[in-house]
């Protein structure tokens, strides 16, 4: 009855999943709804930036040749013919000895080729005319932002596969993308299996626990950028589970189940995958928690069989389902960011498998630390609330201790309780 | 005409903003909508975890006293009376010499006090009865997850002010929070000012540019956890702007304007704040970009006057508006995470003000690097698409160079292009 499974290494399991390279189609969405989506194509500059020669500051647009002889001792006087704010166009004919008062962003008046900031122009009124006096020479293009100096027309300004952040939205708006070409999100179905599961709003009863995995996974699916579709929970009955999985697989791009992947009498998922004719990529991984994580493929759709233990389920999703979703969305960075940092607690007992220890990341100076957030048992759910990284403790013949350097997989830290300091020179490395 | 303003330091400006401590009220929302929200109260365990003594593995529940004499040489035989899966309750009366086949998560049968995993129980059938043979002694509570060993009833499992992540959702579901007490999001109004602004879907015309700041800020407001309310754009006309700001301030918890805070002829915001009777907290900060960032307070509501230059606007939001929003939501970590890392480019020209250089964070080994993503000009918008951190280069008498260690303010990096490796012992610091 006890089945021996051959564990694959973590990286090998990831590779097997990532060999499935389905990509989402393109759809157009409103700019205001684009946050967090992925670009389906390169974004091109539909015009140069700046779109025209313009003033980068508040000052006076002049003909630089007028200042050829200007000096402290012999300042040059110019007559201000007009005041033009950003968004308006100078209409006065500007001849020698004349200037235009302009604001930041104002298109350069014809015949002017330099801008003098307010601070360097002494203003006065003479014979009812507004005048300025300038005490140094200016050259052509001094203080002029030239058309196209930042970006040329037709240039790729954001690459396909980029996640739409606030910065990307600024660029999309600049170039007129009120409709954004985005990758259609994969629909990821979710079933929680287990006769022991109650709905969140049900009262506890003996032997039962509330279903937490499905809600957690739905949130992870959203965090990863996909669309969760929660189908409910399934009792431990083979035929029910088989029919449900078979039917709902038609409605999704991938199907996640939680529970039913171990070797217990009611762990039906491996058998269901076989009966479906799906190709089981692996059914055991050399990792804890989540060693029973099983992934199968059927007609290019993936079936993620995650553990029923909350933390094992969480880790299984982040390591295998997340990168597949990001890859489907076209992200060039589908994997969790791994950094090296210091473990702050002891794990003296050797374990043949790599352990992913739920931890909180902390920054001190130029070092990162991973502080385990709870007991290292896969059943433990409450520690997940405080987890923002996973410390990867290698398997092998020895234990690990506070101070050891390990890989830290960053999830999504919130921020800092410390306000920003004014950085000072002496704190530099020099 | 040229106005001298007294710059405050960055930390002082942050302190002034954060002295306004308005907090959001509590509202109840659906668990499935709770992602990214902030908890308005401590979350309590409504039951212990585990909720009952249960088996943490697939095996046989036994009376441990039956194995007192068990050894390799003289194994003990037990009769399996029943098979019980998780979610069901054993109903057989279990006497001496009897056992129950149980699965992971099954509530412990009465009279049983230990569990033997499948691997340690030889199964066989004798006289039509299912039997097991055990070759070693088990003690009371061996392989039993005891009620409450993880969490006691009434314990605080997630603290007020926590951001709702997938891990928090798992905990909320476990304890029956189908409705979640969340902090009401502040409504943050947004006006873009500037006669030069076109709507995103309008064709370019001479002297005009498309409004990108409002869309960017709306996205930043969402990223920070608040609700943006975009009121449109305003031409550079004092009365129009004054009436708009005065009226809409009634509908929001804070109002962000972009543009109009410098010293140009049409920079009306400082004057508007004065006419409103608002208290101007500062109108110049010793930072670049964004030195003209102006913040005022009127009846406990904040008016953020951000620069019209996209990058200055971006930085002004992240440094001042973001922490105020997070504080309103009750987050204990309202500030951007600051880490120390290495600058990868030269900034040879000294600047009296601290510069926040739009950069991309890179991780190599246990070091962080900030690579500037574009020209260091506040007008530059396209570099914002690639910005995921700000390198803080201190002001002062000297320039900065590649290799210098600086503060790095982390925004929201996407992840890694590198798949996870199987960590190996030899890569450890030991």
Automatic annotation (TrEMBL), chains A, B:
<comment type="pathway">
    <text>Cofactor biosynthesis; molybdopterin biosynthesis.</text>
</comment>
<keyword id="KW-0501">Molybdenum cofactor biosynthesis</keyword>
<comment type="similarity">
    <text>Belongs to the MoeA family.</text>
</comment>
<dbReference type="InterPro" id="IPR005111">
    <property type="entry name" value="MoeA_C_domain_IV"/>
</dbReference>
<dbReference type="InterPro" id="IPR036135">
    <property type="entry name" value="MoeA_linker/N_sf"/>
</dbReference>
<dbReference type="Pfam" id="PF03453">
    <property type="entry name" value="MoeA_N"/>
</dbReference>
<dbReference type="InterPro" id="IPR005110">
    <property type="entry name" value="MoeA_linker/N"/>
</dbReference>
<dbReference type="GO" id="GO:0006777">
    <property type="term" value="P:Mo-molybdopterin cofactor biosynthetic process"/>
</dbReference>
<dbReference type="Pfam" id="PF00994">
    <property type="entry name" value="MoCF_biosynth"/>
</dbReference>
<dbReference type="InterPro" id="IPR036688">
    <property type="entry name" value="MoeA_C_domain_IV_sf"/>
</dbReference>
<dbReference type="Pfam" id="PF03454">
    <property type="entry name" value="MoeA_C"/>
</dbReference>
<dbReference type="InterPro" id="IPR001453">
    <property type="entry name" value="MoaB/Mog_dom"/>
</dbReference>
<keyword id="KW-0808">Transferase</keyword>
<dbReference type="GO" id="GO:0005829">
    <property type="term" value="C:cytosol"/>
</dbReference>
<comment type="function">
    <text>Catalyzes the insertion of molybdate into adenylated molybdopterin with the concomitant release of AMP.</text>
</comment>
<keyword id="KW-0460">Magnesium</keyword>
<dbReference type="InterPro" id="IPR038987">
    <property type="entry name" value="MoeA-like"/>
</dbReference>
<dbReference type="GO" id="GO:0061599">
    <property type="term" value="F:molybdopterin molybdotransferase activity"/>
</dbReference>
<feature type="domain" description="MoaB/Mog">
    <location>
        <begin position="189"/>
        <end position="327"/>
    </location>
</feature>
<keyword id="KW-0500">Molybdenum</keyword>
<dbReference type="GO" id="GO:0046872">
    <property type="term" value="F:metal ion binding"/>
</dbReference>
<keyword id="KW-0479">Metal-binding</keyword>
<protein>
    <recommendedName>
        <fullName>Molybdopterin molybdenumtransferase</fullName>
        <ecNumber>2.10.1.1</ecNumber>
    </recommendedName>
</protein>
<dbReference type="InterPro" id="IPR036425">
    <property type="entry name" value="MoaB/Mog-like_dom_sf"/>
</dbReference>
């Amino acid at each position: 009855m006890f089945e021996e499974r051959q564990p694959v290494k973590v990286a090998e399991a990831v590779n097997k999943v990532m060999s499935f390279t389905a990509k989402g189609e393109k759809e157009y969405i409103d700019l205001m709804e684009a946050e967090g989506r992925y670009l389906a194509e390169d974004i091109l500059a539909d015009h140069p930036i700046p779109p025209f020669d313009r003033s980068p500051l508040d000052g006076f647009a002049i003909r630089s040749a007028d200042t050829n002889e200007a000096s402290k001792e012999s300042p040059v006087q110019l007559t201000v013919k007009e005041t033009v704010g950003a968004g308006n166009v100078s209409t006065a004919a500007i001849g020698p000895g004349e200037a235009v008062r302009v604001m930041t962003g104002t298109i350069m008046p014809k015949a002017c080729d330099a801008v003098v900031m307010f601070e360097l122009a002494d203003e006065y009124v003479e014979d009812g005319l507004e005048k300025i006096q300038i005490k140094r020479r200016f050259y052509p293009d001094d203080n002029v932002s030239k058309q196209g100096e930042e970006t040329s027309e037709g240039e790729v300004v954001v690459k396909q596969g980029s996640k739409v952040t606030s910065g990307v939205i600024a660029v999309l708006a600049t170039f007129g993308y009120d409709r954004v070409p985005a990758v259609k999100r994969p629909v990821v179905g979710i079933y929680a299996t287990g006769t022991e599961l109650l709905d969140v709003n049900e009262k506890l009863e003996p032997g039962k626990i509330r279903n937490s995995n499905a809600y957690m996974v739905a949130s992870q699916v959203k965090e990863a950028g996909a669309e969760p579709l929660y189908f409910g929970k399934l009792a431990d009955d083979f035929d029910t589970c088989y029919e449900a999985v078979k039917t709902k697989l038609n409605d999704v791009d991938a199907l996640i189940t939680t529970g039913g992947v171990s070797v217990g009498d009611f762990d039906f998922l491996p058998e269901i995958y076989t009966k479906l004719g799906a190709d089981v990529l692996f059914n055991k991984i050399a990792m804890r928690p989540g060693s029973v994580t099983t992934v199968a493929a059927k007609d290019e759709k993936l079936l993620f069989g995650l553990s029923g233990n909350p933390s094992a389920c969480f880790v299984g999703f982040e390591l295998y389902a997340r990168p597949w979703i990001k890859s489907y969305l076209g992200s060039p960075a589908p994997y969790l960011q791994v950094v090296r940092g210091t473990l702050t607690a002891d794990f003296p007992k050797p374990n043949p498998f790599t352990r992913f220890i739920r931890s909180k990341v902390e920054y001190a100076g130029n070092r990162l630390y991973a502080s385990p957030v709870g007991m290292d048992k896969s059943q433990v759910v409450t520690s997940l609330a405080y987890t923002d990284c996973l410390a990867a403790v290698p398997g092998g013949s020895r234990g690990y201790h506070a101070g050891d350097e390990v890989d830290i997989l960053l999830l999504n830290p919130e921020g800092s309780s410390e306000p920003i300091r004014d950085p000072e020179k002496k704190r530099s490395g020099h």
